[in-house]
Amino acid sequence: MKKHILPAIKLTVLCIILFTVIYPVSIWAIAQLSDNQGRGEIIEHNGKTYYANIGQSFTSDKYFNSRPSAVDYNAAGSAGSNKGPSNDEYLKQVQARIDTILMKNPGITKSQIPADLVTASGSGLDPNFSVQAAKIQAERIAKIRNIDVVKINNLIAQHTDKPLIGLFGPEKINVLKLNIALDGLK
């Protein structure tokens, strides 16, 4: 037993040094080489500063509405709702979101609504939504802004991020960047 205690203590000290000093310092150093020194992508628009990698709340009819957030877009409290598909309160929230989308976008049906427009992400801060989520809102935005829907659809296509190396993940759109570009359309 005594012959195992000293190696265990050495291994513990080595792991503490490796995982609390060397690893964090190396990740920090790599981040310093990236754009914006690892602070994420910062966008300034109309005198305000936004982080492109944190979800923003857009509820106005003249904008593409964002994905719902279980934490009201509070980055300090990132979390999911922990409510399952059998929870009555959760089902009422989802149904209310569906009803709102159908009311604001009269030309669509319930089956056309993608899940990401009515369910919050695991972090509650997802800055992206699906291409389908943007397309079902295009008619409403074109009508409100008096812009041809073809221009709106072209804007959606321009802001669609393809899967990583064409294989990993779905196509997605950053809602903040899309809405800023939408403000730039005349």
UniProtKB/TrEMBL annotation:
Subcellular location: Cell membrane
Name of the featured protein: Potassium-transporting ATPase KdpC subunit
Topology relative to the membrane: Single-pass membrane protein
Keywords assigned: ATP-binding, Cell membrane, Ion transport, Membrane, Nucleotide-binding, Potassium, Potassium transport, Transmembrane, Transmembrane helix, Transport
Name of one Pfam family that matches: KdpC
GO molecular function: ATP binding; P-type potassium transmembrane transporter activity
Function: Part of the high-affinity ATP-driven potassium transport (or Kdp) system, which catalyzes the hydrolysis of ATP coupled with the electrogenic transport of potassium into the cytoplasm. This subunit acts as a catalytic chaperone that increases the ATP-binding affinity of the ATP-hydrolyzing subunit KdpB by the formation of a transient KdpB/KdpC/ATP ternary complex.
Gene that produces this protein: kdpC
Matches recorded under InterPro entries: KdpC (IPR003820)
Assigned GO CC terms: plasma membrane
Keyword Ion transport in annotation: yes
UniProt-listed HAMAP family: KdpC
Family indicated by similarity: Belongs to the KdpC family.
Domain of life: Bacteria
Subunit structure as annotated in this protein's UniProt entry: The system is composed of three essential subunits: KdpA, KdpB and KdpC.
Entry's transmembrane regions: 12-31
